[in-house]
Amino acid sequence: MGCTASKESGNPQQAKQNFDGSSQAARTRSPTQSRALPPPPPEPEEEVDEGQLYQALYDYDARTEDDLSFKKGQKLKILNNSDGDWWQAQLFGTSKTGYIPSNYVAPCQSIEAEEWFHGKIPRQKAERIIISNNDPGAFLIRESESKPGDYSLSVRDGENVKHYRIRTLDEGGFYIARRVTFKDLAELVQHYREGSDGLCTRLTKPAKHIEMPDTGGLSHKTKDQWEIPRDSIKLRRKLGAGQFGDVWEGLWNGTTQVAVKTLKPNTMSVEDFMAEATIMKQLRHPKLIQLYAVCTDGEPIYIVTELMKHGSLLDYLHDKGRALRLPQLVDMAAQIAAGMAYLEAQNYIHRDLAARNVLVGENNICKVADFGLARVIERENEYTAREGAKFPIKWTSPEAAMLNRFSIKSDVWSFGVLLTEVITYGRIPYPGMNNAEVLQQVEKGYRMPIPQGCPELLYTIMLDCWKAAPEDRPTFETLQWRLEDFFVSSEANYNEADNIMQ
User: Which residue ranges does the record assign to the SH2 domain (predicted)?
Assistant: First the structure.
């Protein structure tokens, strides 16, 4: 992964011209004229501070005239990194400059620039990455979420994924099997690429990254000033319709695919929406749909967000998602819990968590959407008809439905209902019951029975979400790790190369 800063010295064509000119001059030179001057010295190598040179981790196509396009693996010289999300850079070896998303690059020679390093990810995500479009022997190294500085090797063995703890030496260095140690992780990887040496298989190619990182807004220009001109958005294809507006696939600035939610006139006041949207835009997490920009200069209001390939989780479960099996369904639920755990940590309430408000991208990536909109709409009295069709009674906790007491714990109740949607491929909750019956029966202690094919352990999680007292319900942080570890029995699932070599 060399990041050598060098240029070619001289121009061969120019040298030829100089040589030919010198020969002609020699034939016409006067006897007293001295011989030709020597060619100029080569240009000095470009001086580059090692800390300025970065490597591209992904391809990036410029979205505005101020952006800089680059390809994965190219080197970039960072000119200004004072903005956390967008840096000014120069494509190394060229005069091209522009803004780049800072999370698309990593310092040359750093572990983050290695194709096999995937950062802090849970074991379940590592397995999803490796199984997706990778051959046997595909591998990655990940950092422990719970123990910073500790690493694990995950490798595909047939249809399974094996995990190995990478242990650290007191004097520096790493090992999997104590009999052979390495000065760094790159040396460890190279060793096991040459032969399995006690692992389940020889390491072949690094596992492909299945998620592109979110950029900090649409561009450097719109990052802080996110009211965009309506004519910069072209609506291309209607994706769906809801009670508060339509959702479209759109194109921003002629370059960038986006999703556009068009709110029906008089759904909410511009002032209330902008107050809430300002908060929503600050909420940034890989499992939340990112709010890019808005158009509020007229009706309908546009809400511009990232585009997810498969649309809502509910629609996906009704269609292509029917091929999903239990491990994939539980993994998707864990992703949703991760997004909600972030909102929980920010003291933010969703108020309308359901499969219809979760979006699905490639490789079953799930992100929570529409957080915050329910609060604005309620201010505009859209949700006051508690018995009406507009209010999602079947997803709402008793204290929220009866007393209007919304909290993160009422979101936990809704998550339990969402779990039934996931495990039943989008079945409507409380089948055969209307809203009034649901309110009455739940208040008396009724809970949905275990869905067909649902593991007892998963049903236990649902029941925990439906505890009558809000304070008795689990946190989303707890729900996240329970679902991430659903198929894991902790230490027993790590393989030891020493044991294999017995």
Answer: 116-207
pTM of the model: 0.82
Q: Which amino acid is at 124?
A: Q
* 183 marked among binding-site residues: no
Q: Enter the CATH code of domain 312-377+386-485.
A: 1.10.510.10
Q: By the 8 A CB rule, do 75 and 3 touch?
A: yes
Strands (E), 50-96: 53-56, 75-80, 86-91
For the stretch 397-426, what's the b/e string if a residue is b when 16 or more beta carbons lie within 10 angstroms of its beta carbon?
bbbbbeeeebbbbbbbbbbbbbbbbbbbbb
Asked if 303 and 276 touch (Cβ cutoff 8 Å), the reply is no
Could you tell me the two tokens for 114? 């290695």
Helix (H) or strand (E) holding 358: strand 358-360
Reading the block at residue 276, the tokens are 């809430």
How much is the average pLDDT of 45-69? 85
Report DSSP letters for 398-410, one per residue.
Answer: HHHHHH----HHH
**Which CATH code fits 220-305?**
3.30.200.20
Helix axis angle, 326-345 to 408-423, nearest 10°:
170
CA 387 → CA 357, 401, 440, 494, distances in Å?
21, 9, 11, 51
Which tens digit of pLDDT belongs to each residue from 412-429? 999 999 999 999 999 999
61-78: average pLDDT:
96
Question: What CATH architecture does domain 114-194 belong to?
Answer: 2-Layer Sandwich (3.30)
C-alpha to C-alpha distance for 243 and 245, rounded to whole angstroms: 6
The answer to whether 352 is a known catalytic residue is: yes
Going 327 to 333 to 335 to 338, the CA torsion angle's sign is negative
**CATH of the domain spanning 50-111:** 2.30.30.40
